Amino acid sequence: MSYAYLEEYGPLLADVAASGRRLTREEVRGRRQAGEQAAAREALGLRALIGRHLAAARAAWPEGPLDRRDVLDLLAAVEQSVDAVAGGFERAQRLAVRQEEAERREFIDDLLYGRSDLGRLAQRAERFGLRLSHTHAVAVARGPQAYSEADPVPQQVERALIGRFGDRDILLTTKGGRIVAVAPGDQSDVLTYFAKQAFAATGGGQAAIGRPQPGPGGVVQSYEEALRALELADRLDLDAPVLHAADLLVYPVLTRDRQAMEDLVNSVLGPLRTARGGAGPLLDTLTAFFDTGCVTTQTARHLTLSVRAVSYRLDRIHRLTGVDPADPASRYTLQTAMIGARLLGWPHETPGPGGSSAS
Fold first, then answer.
1. 111: buried, middle or exposed (CB in 10 Å: 19+, 13-18, 0-12)?
2. Is 147 within 8 Å of 174 (Cβ atoms)?
3. Domain parsing of the chain, residue ranges
4. Whole-number Å distance between alpha carbons of 247 and 250
5. Which of 17, 220, 223, 336 could form an S-S bond across to 138 if both were Cys, CB 3.0 to 4.6 Å?
6. Helices 68-113 and 25-41 meet at what angle, rounded to 10?
7. pLDDT (tens digit, 9 = 90+) per residue, 206-217?
8. Alpha carbon 259 to chain centroid distance?
9. What is the pLDDT of residues 165-180, one digit of tens each?
């Protein structure tokens, strides 16, 4: 079989055998270009390329006896040629890898931000192992630092996923310093395992899993749900290792009418600002009280206070707000206002009565 990048090799070696010269700079450049072309056009591996080159050298080897000097000259020319071809091949491979990385990054940006035509996006997705006509879910994990795809932590998570599930239409990447996994929506075990591995690899980070969403735009929706879940975790001090967006749907509903929520928070919790020491200690007491299932003894243990001190604070809250935290019938209003306060950053961000900034 004839290969274009070897056509000039035989005559070149014959001339070297006759003259004993080394390859010229132009000839070395030609051999390097031949290696680039072989890698780009014929998709050869380096081992196959060098094997063909050595076979061509053997075929072009001069007949008849050669003295030691002639053999050394020929071997030196072969060494020059193989080195140049291998160098050209490696350069072509590096360019191909950079191009592949750029295309992959562009695809991921378009996929997660929905910035491309959905039909074209679905076609491009098949190249990266995704079938966007199906349902997909997205998990986002974060750790104590920002990560890129070249960092050991994402690579460790990826190895774990591949070792467990193989090539199962999973896309793992990084975005905004977080680790992102996209998986088929009917394979929840994949993202659960991803969250577990991310927690271990990041040394105790946190992951959020969006709901499975159909179609090419489903990845964007699930990704945004996961990001919102992490944002809610920050605002509500949720420290669970894994958050499921489906379990947090009530919070966006509560803040959909922000003005109504601000009015509720100011109306119900506003009187706590008049307490000695400000609203902070009483808000902390309410948070602990609701988080412990409204059990006074556990609240006291959580706050490192006596039961008497906690009872005093709860009574103080009752007298200031007119709502009894211990009364199941009226507790819901107070608890909803507390959730709203945490979502709105009250009393630090929400305007107080009269429009003044609360402090």
1. buried
2. yes
3. 4-97, 133-248, 253-355
4. 8
5. 223
6. 40
7. 999 999 998 878
8. 35
9. 886 678 888 999 999 9
